[in-house]
Amino acid sequence: EVYFKNLSKQKQKEVMEKNGNNHKLRVCVATCNRADYSKLAPIMFGIKAEPQFFELDVVVLGSHLIDDYGNTYRMIEQDDFDIHTRLHTIVRGEDEAAMVESVGLALVKLPDVLNRLKPDIMIVHGDRFDALALATSAALMNIRILHIEGGEVSGTIDDSIRHAITKLAHYHVCCTRSAEQHLIAMCEDHDRILLAGCPSYDKLLSAKNKDYMSIIRMWLGDDVKTRDYIVALQHPVTTDIKHSIKMFELTLDALISFNKRTLVLFPNVDAGDKEMVRVMRKKGIEHHPNFRAVKHVPFDQFIQLVAHAGCMIGNSSCGVREVGAFGTPVINLGTRQTGRETGENVLHVRDADTQDKILHALQLQFGKQYPCSKIYGDGNAVPRILKFLKSIDLKEPLQKKFCFPPVKDNISQDIDHILETQSALAVDLGGTNLRVAIVSMKGEIVKKYTQLNPKTYEDRLELILRMCVEAASEAVNVNCRILGVGISTGGRVNPREGIVLHSTKLIQEWSSVDLRTPVSDALHLPVWVDNDGNCAALAERKFGHGKGIENFVTLITGTGIGGGIVHQHELIHGSSFCAAELGHIVVSLDGPECLCGSQGCIEAYASGIALQREAKKLHDEDLLLVEGMSMKKEEVVSAAHLIQAAKLGNTKADSILRTAGTALGLGVVNILHTMNPSLVILSGVLASHYVNAVKDVINRQALSSVKTVDVVVSNLADPALLGAASLVLDYTTRRIY
């Protein structure tokens, strides 16, 4: 709450002047149950913290007011919110008719409340039948509706209710890109859709470091350890109540057999919920030594429980949405969440028709730890929602407009107040420097950070995490949404696991290093890792000369020689992730020794290290400097001095460069005869010095069928960082890598 109080302090005056009036937006937030309050509470705190912009009215109804479900309205009072109205709207019953009657009762009671409150806008969450009554009442009474979590897909009647509320709502806050696209496909106004992420993630992503053992002991007992208990939360499926009751019985039988301490939460208020409670009591769950059955757990404590559980099982949306933020294993039973986007931590058991099948799923999942997933949010949803609310113009016509096909491409990013640039966090681990950058979808480096690369593993990893956290925090200020982290590093890399297998000699203590896990855990973002040569090829494919080219090769000419091969639009890694080690193509059997231990490699002739070696030899023999050149006594001889000497007429330096260019050209000829690409891209600081020599060797040595290949110099300013960004941007937006 303190955070939200300070969030917009400096911008308040500007926004008020822009709006041109001092009218406070009167916002009614209606909450029906414990689940939707966990999503609405962060927004309510944000609204309450800005009284100069908003007036907040809270309406409580539904299962909040039922003792059987824990009287959860009390947690709203404990959060210091004034409840304006309490509406008892649940009709007791065990079938579908009770839900219909509850909707009818809410429709009878809500008009009087809304007439008294006269809100400018009502915030409605999700897909519960209570929410449908709220949206219907507000729409018929000409009250603007902001719907949270529209556009998502799941199973049961919830889909129909969610989409019905979408058609009644005037504004939409969605959590994922897919949900946004669904709203667009449903012909909702592009400019009234905000892709913000799930509000509960604002709390989730900062929750795991808090004290949790006391919470675990309070709910599960003093002898329970982290990752050694289960959280079970299962609801009836209203479109097939009989089957969902049977599945719940099988789940409890499997949990009893699995013999781990288990916290079982009571189900939602739905047709079939009472029968599920009877099943629990029939099996003695409330008195079983391994089980704790509870009606309600406060959200702050619940997220600590699932964050440190060995597994969560059931069919709650919490399992496929919120729990992914912690990487806790989840077993999703049945069809209730069919269609939801999930992280790799979720194992689906669609036909949970036997105890053995559920028991096997428990054996597979229990105790694992998965990478943290941020599919549903990045922790900055509430600031975006508040910004969105402030932009609402109450003078605009109330009548909704629908955008029928054809649908525009850049949908909800068209208006200034929700404009954010999809971006990647790119990390380049060089032999000398460690660089981190925020890179936009268009390849613009928005902000870059550079530090000297530490010599030890511990210091290097600590610096990577510190720089990444700093850059991720800064991304919000520069209006960028970070989709993931891409890491470019020297050596042999297993990109599937995010592990550096073997490093080059330029980067010490950098073998068998798992980079994905610590970076993902620190940032709660997906992480991709690949070799720097492969990253350079990806950069060309997305931003450079390789864009749209089916088969091409990139050669990096720098301190070493590396590269990447793109064949049929896909990057080639090889069976042991050693493909495209182009610097170690042998072009002479008795050539100079290479750092790899072999002789006659391209790198031994044409790399910056090789040129520096030859320059030192000339300098030691006083054959390097010519007229027009000078060197300070303490200055280190480098490849640049050799190139300068050649330009000024030093025939020996020129001969060395021509030999280097010939060696590189012979390597390229071998590549042409092996891969037959249509394009060769030379990248790196030495590329412009070698391009003509390479073309000459191709004309002399290559088969006529490959001489037509184009050889060009890369026009990318920073291929390593752009390539690391491409790892993220290609996968998260187009799913092609």
TrEMBL record:
<dbReference type="GO" id="GO:0008761">
    <property type="term" value="F:UDP-N-acetylglucosamine 2-epimerase activity"/>
</dbReference>
<feature type="binding site">
    <location>
        <position position="504"/>
    </location>
    <ligand>
        <name>an N-acyl-D-mannosamine</name>
    </ligand>
</feature>
<keyword id="KW-0418">Kinase</keyword>
<feature type="binding site">
    <location>
        <position position="601"/>
    </location>
    <ligand>
        <name>Zn(2+)</name>
    </ligand>
</feature>
<dbReference type="GO" id="GO:0009384">
    <property type="term" value="F:N-acylmannosamine kinase activity"/>
</dbReference>
<feature type="binding site">
    <location>
        <position position="584"/>
    </location>
    <ligand>
        <name>Zn(2+)</name>
    </ligand>
</feature>
<protein>
    <recommendedName>
        <fullName>Bifunctional UDP-N-acetylglucosamine 2-epimerase/N-acetylmannosamine kinase</fullName>
        <ecNumber>2.7.1.60</ecNumber>
        <ecNumber>3.2.1.183</ecNumber>
    </recommendedName>
</protein>
<dbReference type="InterPro" id="IPR000600">
    <property type="entry name" value="ROK"/>
</dbReference>
<comment type="similarity">
    <text>In the C-terminal section; belongs to the ROK (NagC/XylR) family.</text>
</comment>
<keyword id="KW-0963">Cytoplasm</keyword>
<feature type="binding site">
    <location>
        <position position="581"/>
    </location>
    <ligand>
        <name>an N-acyl-D-mannosamine</name>
    </ligand>
</feature>
<comment type="subunit">
    <text>Homodimer. Homotetramer. Homohexamer. The hexameric form exhibits both enzyme activities, whereas the dimeric form only catalyzes the phosphorylation of N-acyl-D-mannosamine.</text>
</comment>
<dbReference type="GO" id="GO:0046872">
    <property type="term" value="F:metal ion binding"/>
</dbReference>
<feature type="binding site">
    <location>
        <position position="492"/>
    </location>
    <ligand>
        <name>an N-acyl-D-mannosamine</name>
    </ligand>
</feature>
<keyword id="KW-0067">ATP-binding</keyword>
<dbReference type="GO" id="GO:0005829">
    <property type="term" value="C:cytosol"/>
</dbReference>
<dbReference type="InterPro" id="IPR020004">
    <property type="entry name" value="UDP-GlcNAc_Epase"/>
</dbReference>
<keyword id="KW-0597">Phosphoprotein</keyword>
<feature type="binding site">
    <location>
        <position position="603"/>
    </location>
    <ligand>
        <name>an N-acyl-D-mannosamine</name>
    </ligand>
</feature>
<feature type="binding site">
    <location>
        <position position="596"/>
    </location>
    <ligand>
        <name>Zn(2+)</name>
    </ligand>
</feature>
<dbReference type="GO" id="GO:0006047">
    <property type="term" value="P:UDP-N-acetylglucosamine metabolic process"/>
</dbReference>
<dbReference type="GO" id="GO:0005524">
    <property type="term" value="F:ATP binding"/>
</dbReference>
<keyword id="KW-0547">Nucleotide-binding</keyword>
<dbReference type="Pfam" id="PF00480">
    <property type="entry name" value="ROK"/>
</dbReference>
<comment type="pathway">
    <text>Amino-sugar metabolism; N-acetylneuraminate biosynthesis.</text>
</comment>
<keyword id="KW-0378">Hydrolase</keyword>
<dbReference type="InterPro" id="IPR003331">
    <property type="entry name" value="UDP_GlcNAc_Epimerase_2_dom"/>
</dbReference>
<dbReference type="Pfam" id="PF02350">
    <property type="entry name" value="Epimerase_2"/>
</dbReference>
<keyword id="KW-0862">Zinc</keyword>
<dbReference type="InterPro" id="IPR043129">
    <property type="entry name" value="ATPase_NBD"/>
</dbReference>
<feature type="binding site">
    <location>
        <position position="584"/>
    </location>
    <ligand>
        <name>an N-acyl-D-mannosamine</name>
    </ligand>
</feature>
<feature type="domain" description="UDP-N-acetylglucosamine 2-epimerase">
    <location>
        <begin position="53"/>
        <end position="390"/>
    </location>
</feature>
<feature type="binding site">
    <location>
        <position position="532"/>
    </location>
    <ligand>
        <name>an N-acyl-D-mannosamine</name>
    </ligand>
</feature>
<feature type="binding site">
    <location>
        <position position="594"/>
    </location>
    <ligand>
        <name>Zn(2+)</name>
    </ligand>
</feature>
<keyword id="KW-0808">Transferase</keyword>
<feature type="active site">
    <location>
        <position position="532"/>
    </location>
</feature>
<keyword id="KW-0479">Metal-binding</keyword>
<keyword id="KW-0021">Allosteric enzyme</keyword>
<keyword id="KW-0511">Multifunctional enzyme</keyword>
<comment type="similarity">
    <text>In the N-terminal section; belongs to the UDP-N-acetylglucosamine 2-epimerase family.</text>
</comment>
<dbReference type="GO" id="GO:0004553">
    <property type="term" value="F:hydrolase activity, hydrolyzing O-glycosyl compounds"/>
</dbReference>
